[in-house]
Amino acid sequence: MSDNRAERAPVRYLTDEKFITWMLCPTDELDTYWQRFTEENPEEKAELLRAKALFRKVKLSSYKLDETTKAKAVARLEKSLLDYQRKKKVRRTLIMTVGTAAAILLLIFLQQDMFRQSDRFSDRSIDYYVGSELESKEIQLFTGNRTTSFEENIDITISNDQRIAVKKESSTDADEISTERNSINRLVVPHGKRSKVMLPDGTQIWLNAGSTLVFPSAFDKKTREVKLRGEMYAEVAHDPDRPFLVKTDELDLKVYGTDFNLSAYEDADPWVVLVEGSVGVKTAGGNEMKLAPNERIVRNQNGLLEKSRVDVSSFVSWKDGYLAYQETPIAEVLKQIERYYNLSFNLDDHVSLQGVTCSGKIILTDNLDNVLTALTLISDTRYHRENKSIYIYE
């Protein structure tokens, strides 16, 4: 086979959506399909291997989409989100969506015959954000004098008799953790992880990445109080005789009922949005400000509370597995992505991408390439991964 034939042979695989989906989101079903394919067509095995090698060299987001193609791709993302919300089948939805978007990118890419050329990112002189993949850390649960670590996301349930049950994300069964009665517990969720806690009164709390929640095994008869550093979404059980209180470094909340989202990270101004019910917010020594549904309160850098009406769905969507943006600065989006995927981006002001905004939705899957591809679609940018480094550029 001549060199030219060798280059052309794998092309049909690189334009095959099933092959692209296999490369992006491999499943047991796809593994079986392609294994059977090579068994039935042994003469194709070498070309398939070359296609896989070429695919790894292709930078999926290296082509800047025209507005029409971009609108179609974003529409597919929107449709996949609706499918996700309706069916709760995130993985399958993303496979189809990103596979289709990737097919579009690759078709254009191949037409330009770019994959034949060695185009090292490091040779370019461009302005970019650069991120690094960090070492994964475990979730830690401190109960009294005992510490328990978990490699995967967990759900914690505390019963009325103060027993603590922990269910791992990959398991259907829960393990019980013994603890002293009336102990004060601390759950530390690092970047790249999430957890959920059901308190003994029935209140449910979703903890976002990079958060710490301090909570008792049993509430007293007068109040229900927890402490937060990070972000949580809460559905508070109704109890008119015992107010639910949340303490943070900068804000105190008194919950009159029911659903709200509180963000209190150390590197950003704290804020709270209300979905239902009523919440009172105050700073140290300040007066309480009431929050109504679809309102947001931010404590600004001067220590003052600012209230505004918002679409709360974009602030609470992380609980349901996606992020929503409307003309959001890309630096803010990257800050969220780095928490979810345990990354660290340089977000210095000197980078020219400071003016770039994002409008659209990103589905939070386990595949970082899928997330970065979605980011490029809603921000009109590109990305490149090299070892553990990620470059975002125009």
Give a quick precis of the structure.
With 394 residues, the protein is of the alpha+beta class.
Given the structure, what is the number of helices? 10
The coarse overall form would be globular
Residue fraction in strands: 25-35%
* Helix content, binned percent: 25-40%
Q: Classify the secondary structure makeup into a structural class.
A: alpha+beta
Tell me, rounded to a whole number, the average pLDDT: 80
Rg over C-alpha atoms, rounded to the nearest angstrom: 24 Å
Number of strands: 22
Low-confidence stretches: 1-8, 59-64, 87-97, 103-120
Give the N-terminus to C-terminus distance in angstroms: 39 Å
- Major beta sheet, specifics? 16 strands, mixed
Secondary structure: elements and pairs:
Elements: H1 3-8, H2 11-14, H3 17-24, H4 28-40, H5 45-57, H6 67-87, H7 90-111, E1 128-133, E2 139-143, E3 146-150, E4 154-158, E5 164-168, E6 174-177, E7 184-189, E8 195-198, E9 204-207, E10 211-216, E11 224-235, E12 244-247, E13 252-264, E14 271-282, E15 289-291, E16 295-299, E17 305-309, H8 313-316, E18 322-329, H9 330-341, E19 343-345, E20 357-363, H10 368-379, E21 382-386, E22 389-393
Parallel strand pairs: 4-8, 11-12
Antiparallel strand pairs: 1-19, 1-22, 2-3, 2-7, 4-5, 5-6, 7-10, 8-9, 9-11, 10-11, 11-13, 12-13, 13-14, 14-15, 14-16, 16-17, 18-20, 21-22
